Amino acid sequence: MTPLAALLIQRIREGGPITVADYMAECLLHPTHGYYTTREPFGTAGDFTTAPEISQMFGELFGLALAQAWVDQGAPAPFTLAELGPGRGTLMADILRATRAVPGFHAAARVVLVEASPRLRTVQQATLAPFAVTLTWADTVDALPDAPLFLIANEFLDALPIRQFQRGPDGWRERLVGLADGALSFGLSDLLPQVPDTPAFQTAPAGAIVEDCAQARHAVAALMARITRHGGLAYLVDYGDWRSRGDTLQALRAHAFDPPLAHPGEADLTAHVDFEPLAALAPAHAFDSQGAVLNRLGIAARAARLAQNLTGAALESHLAAHRRLTDPQEMGSLFKVLALTRANAPLPPGFAP
Ligand code: SAH
After folding, report:
1. N or C: which end of the chain has fewer CB within 10 A?
2. C-alpha angle 118-216-63 in degrees, rounded to nearest 5
3. pTM (two decimals)
4. What is the domain range of residue 68?
5. Total domains present in the chain
6. pLDDT (tens digit, 9 = 90+) per residue, 277-325?
7. Test site for ligand 1: of 115, 236, 239, 270, most ligand atoms within 8 A of the Cβ
8. Beta bridge mates, 256
9. 120 alpha carbon to ligand 1 midpoint, in Å?
10. Distance 115 CA to ligand 1 centre (A)
């Protein structure tokens, strides 16, 4: 049993079952036993590999896309260049390297990283030390400056706690984490007087599980408040669907799926992102697969250019990385990009009408 499992069992004994969201929040960000507060999750030695860790091309192309949108919007200065959940800082480093030659971009940028884990902040600081930019950290999106906002988040929304609801013959109940034979176990609440009035809930068939991520909606609303007032663009990249599809809570440990209640605090815990209710918060949005967006941003040309300097195993792994990011059988179609702008803004780079 993990140390966090012991604490949670104690808490449930005393206070009763907890929501899936409470469980997720404790597993990921508990101050002493949380996954992101204590562990090094990324890369082959960790539990999962993310797009910016697969290839520099991911950050380069999104960096140039953000810079293009900044130029298209009249190069506002100063502006916030932000990332949500920057992990090791690899994506922001690639963005900054790729945009060095964009006149005025770095001078006008105030880089803000929204990161909850003190440990990962230290890693990000070391990764980004070589860049001569103003760099600050924020605990939540609410602390982002009131200024034009050009933002990216990769695999951030999937880490935000979700609640799960199940439609039974007699109405809706919430899925809870309680105890069975002294171990953590899923159960159901009493009947709920009401559930959110969204398309996912309205159209769910009997027996279906619907997920709801209040923190994701709150985050997008906070971004949109700034973008609506001052301009900007947000790219939200994650795996998920336009509309929630059942139970998507999953744990990953050492690159393999793990039962979500098996190793609290020692496995990554995520849920697929339900994009429709997030897009609904923006006056204008564009949505497509990661593969389609990277192709439109010119990944083929960039990959060919990088390949010219590579041979042997390095070339093989570069070609595999290109395929992994774009191929529909790999990350290309499982991962989606939601771009958020204010009303009447031009279509963001990477999207087609
Ligand atoms: N974007 C990076 C890392 C993804 S992992 C990449 O693509 O490699 C998720 C990141 O979000 C981690 O940095 C984690 O510490 C951070 N995070 C998770 N929940 C958070 C929260 N509620 N608030 C702020 N940061 C959070």
Report:
1. C
2. 70
3. 0.96
4. 31-160+214-341
5. 1
6. 999 999 999 999 999 999 999 999 999 999 999 999 999 999 999 999 9
7. 115
8. 253
9. 9
10. 6
